[in-house]
Amino acid sequence: MAYNLLKGKKGLIFGALDEKSIAWKVAEKAHEEGAELVLSNTPVAIRMGQIDELAEKTGSKVVPADATDVDDLTKLVDEAMAFFGGKFDFVLHSIGMSPNVRKGKPYDDLNYNFLEKTLDISAISFHKVLQVCRKKDAINEWGSVVALTYVAAQKTMYEYNDMADAKSLLESIARSFGYMYGRDKKIRINTISQSPTMTTAGSGVKGIDLLLDFSERMSPLGNATADECADYSIMMFSDLTRKVTMQNLYHDGGFSSMGMSLRAIEQYNKSFEDCDDKSL
Ligand SMILES: NC(=O)c1ccc[n+]([C@@H]2O[C@H](COP(=O)([O-])OP(=O)(O)OC[C@H]3O[C@@H](n4cnc5c(N)ncnc54)[C@H](O)[C@@H]3O)[C@@H](O)[C@H]2O)c1
Predict the structure, then answer these.
(1) CA angle at residue 34 from 193 to 247, to 5 degrees?
(2) Phi, psi torsion values for 49, nearest 5 degrees
(3) Could you say which of 2, 61, 180, 217 would form a disulfide bridge with 263 (CB–CB 3.0 to 4.6 Å)?
(4) Closest CA to ligand 1's atom 44
(5) Which of 46, 97, 161 maximizes ligand 1 atoms within 8 Å of its Cβ, making it the mutation to test the pocket?
């Protein structure tokens, strides 16, 4: 059901690759709620993915940009402003990639060139997007910017690797830029910390099936889906959250506040049932 929460608003959405992508769900819901959109992804993701289908469905413009390249971002923001006929109201940064994870390099044997790429793509690109938008004064007052993150920024999560460092940096950028953009232009910047979700980026995390099961059992409300993440993002882009800024907002069914749940401990105990050695 749509509520016209984004009626008359314009937004720039990064990171829709295919229909599993969180950004894809956000774009669909933003369109349903009345927003006009520009969609962006890397040229290769546009070629390999299905973003054109999403653009057709939502009447959006697609502009290629590597989010680590300031020239690309500058052209993108210019094209978006030309398409909208002026400034826009919201931005979604839904970008993440680690070459160390992709190549199976463990955290105690990182390739440092890869690490630089992880940080650039998954975190510093957020600063670049914000800086280009700020310099071009591209976002309307009381606009809203959201980036997607994961609880591995605060707590060590098995196999999340150097993406944990990238997410910590991403969340810090949201706070530091949130102060300046808020003070000068009344623009709010937040991160949404989402449950593990079965997307292309999600399935790159080693052991994602086990992680999904574990966090489902640990969360009183269960894992949050990509659709539910899209609902939360729409609320953050709407005028209902105008004084929320510089926050890391957990959208994870309660996982981040849990220590141990009954469901998780029961499953853990089952693993000892056929085992004679109780010391294990
Ligand atoms: N899936 C999960 O379990 C989960 C959980 C918490 C947070 N997140 C975060 O949500 C965001 C979206 O991921 P997703 O799960 O929808 O997966 P996804 O693979 O669908 O989206 C990741 C996107 O990043 C884009 N990207 C990669 N390099 C880029 C670059 N240089 N420039 C521009 N775009 C680039 C990809 O093309 C892709 O569209 C990411 O920040 C991810 O870390 C995901």
Answers:
(1) 25
(2) -90, -160
(3) 217
(4) 202
(5) 97
Picking from 253, 159, 143, the residue whose alpha carbon sits closest to that of residue 206 is 159
Q: Which residue has the tokens 């937040």?
A: 190
Cα 204 to ligand 1 centre (Å): 10
Pairing mode of beta strands 139-149, 88-93: parallel
The pTM of this model reads 0.97
- pLDDT tens for each residue of 222-278: 999 999 999 999 999 999 999 999 999 999 999 999 999 999 898 888 888 766 665
Instruction: Look at ligand 1, atom 39, and give the residue with the nearest C-alpha.
Output: 15
Residue 215: closest CA among 198, 193, 196, 194: 196
| CB of residue 194 inside a 6 A radius of ligand 1 | yes
Q: Which atom of ligand 1 is the closest one to the Cα of 20?
A: 20
Tokens 């390999």 -> residue: 48
120 lines ligand 1 (CB under 6 A): no
Alpha-carbon distance of 154 to 161, in angstroms, equals: 13
Rounded Cα distance between 186 and 142, Å, is: 5
User: With contact defined as beta carbons under 8 Å apart, do 271 and 217 qualify?
Assistant: no
